[in-house]
Amino acid sequence: MSQQLNYKIQGEGHTIVLIHGLFGNLDNLGLLARDLVLDHQVLSVDLRNHGQSFHSQTHDYASMAKDIVELLSNLGIKTYTLVGHSMGGKVAMQVANLSRQNTSALIVLDMAPVQYHQRRHDDVFAGLFAVLDHKPASRKEAMAILEQHIDTDGVRQFLSKSLYKEGQHMTWRFNVHSLYQNYLNILAWETQASNTVPTLFIKGANSDYLTREYQPQIQAQYPIAKAHVIANTGHWLHAEKPAEVLRVMRRFLSK
Predict the structure, then answer these.
(1) 117-153: pLDDT as tens digits
(2) Is 235 assigned a catalytic role?
(3) Which residue in the list 86, 99, 121, 238 is annotated as catalytic?
(4) What mean pLDDT is predicted for residues 11-35?
(5) Which is nearest to 88 in space by CA: 65, 56, 69?
(6) Cα 207 from Cα 183, distance rounded (Å)
(7) Measured between alpha carbons, how far is 193 from 209 in angstroms, rounded to an integer?
(8) Which domains does the chain have, with CATH numbers?
(9) Which of 33, 132, 156, 160 is the most exposed place for a label (fewest CB within 10 A)?
(10) How many CB atoms lie within 10 A of CB 107?
(11) Could you tell me which residues come within 8 angstroms of residue 251 by beta carbon, excluding any fewer than 6 positions away?
(12) H or E element in which residue 66 lies
């Protein structure tokens, strides 16, 4: 029997499903949820190997999308809008492909439907494994270990949201070993058949995850997709510029 994802559901109305990215959890899109919950039902999920969802040796888009489709079915939610950031954007695209009749709209935050080749997280994995190896007794100790491997304070702070105390030491809620072993699956993408679900790609202007070179692949897979660029922001656009992201999302959803 398959295991069910951990989730949080808030509000009433048409359901918007919020799907976080790599090393995240269901609170990552919380700034969006806080606004959307005023007039929607918002379902926030912990993907497998993240947050308080189950750990698995399998971590690929087919499996992650199936987890979400099963959760929606178990909750009796028939139609929904999907919103995904980064890795979660690819999960959202895969869900929209699996359940086209049920998906009323798809919003992808700073991610393209392509295979990436650049390894962006080797320093992160080095820091995560160092914490596992050293078994720090406190959050402060864990952060000092991370600092030896990860230069950017914002990245360290983001990762720290998944630290918790297990017995006498701090450890990670996400499954570091599985994510590391499946990293090429996370970079990967199998081209989807053309999908005419109303789709919006929102790009952080300073990010290189969603670039002009990917336009042919996007148009082949999402021929009616719209795109919007949020100025002066990077890959974490929903955290850096939540008001602008929400305004663009709401304008798209109201059409």
Answers:
(1) 999 999 999 999 999 999 999 999 999 999 999 999 9
(2) yes
(3) 86
(4) 97
(5) 65
(6) 20
(7) 22
(8) 7-115+188-253 (3.40.50.1820), 122-181 (no CATH)
(9) 160
(10) 26
(11) none
(12) helix 61-74
Model confidence band, residue 80 (pLDDT cutoffs 50, 70, 90): very high
Which tens digit of pLDDT belongs to each residue from 196-243? 999 999 999 999 999 999 999 999 999 999 999 999 999 999 999 999
Question: Closest Cα partner for 230 from 199, 209, 254?
Answer: 209
| Size of the chain, expressed as the number of residues it contains | 255
Q: Residues 20, 40, 59, 235: which is the catalytic one?
A: 235
Condensed to tens digits (0 to 9), the pLDDT of residues 99-115 reads 999 999 999 999 999 99
- Cβ–Cβ < 8 Å for 245, 237: yes
Question: HSE (CB half, 13 Å, CA atoms) of 203?
Answer: 16
134 is catalytic: no
Judged on CB neighbours under 10 Å (0-12, 13-18, 19+), 227 is middle
Average confidence score pLDDT of the chain: 96
- What secondary structure, in 3-state letters, does 111-180 show? CCCCCCCCCCCHHHHHHHHHHHHHCCCCHHHHHHHHHCCCCCHHHHHHHHCCEEEECCEEEECCCHHHHH
CB 72 within 8 Å of CB 81: no
Q: Given a cut of 70, is residue 11 above it in pLDDT?
A: yes
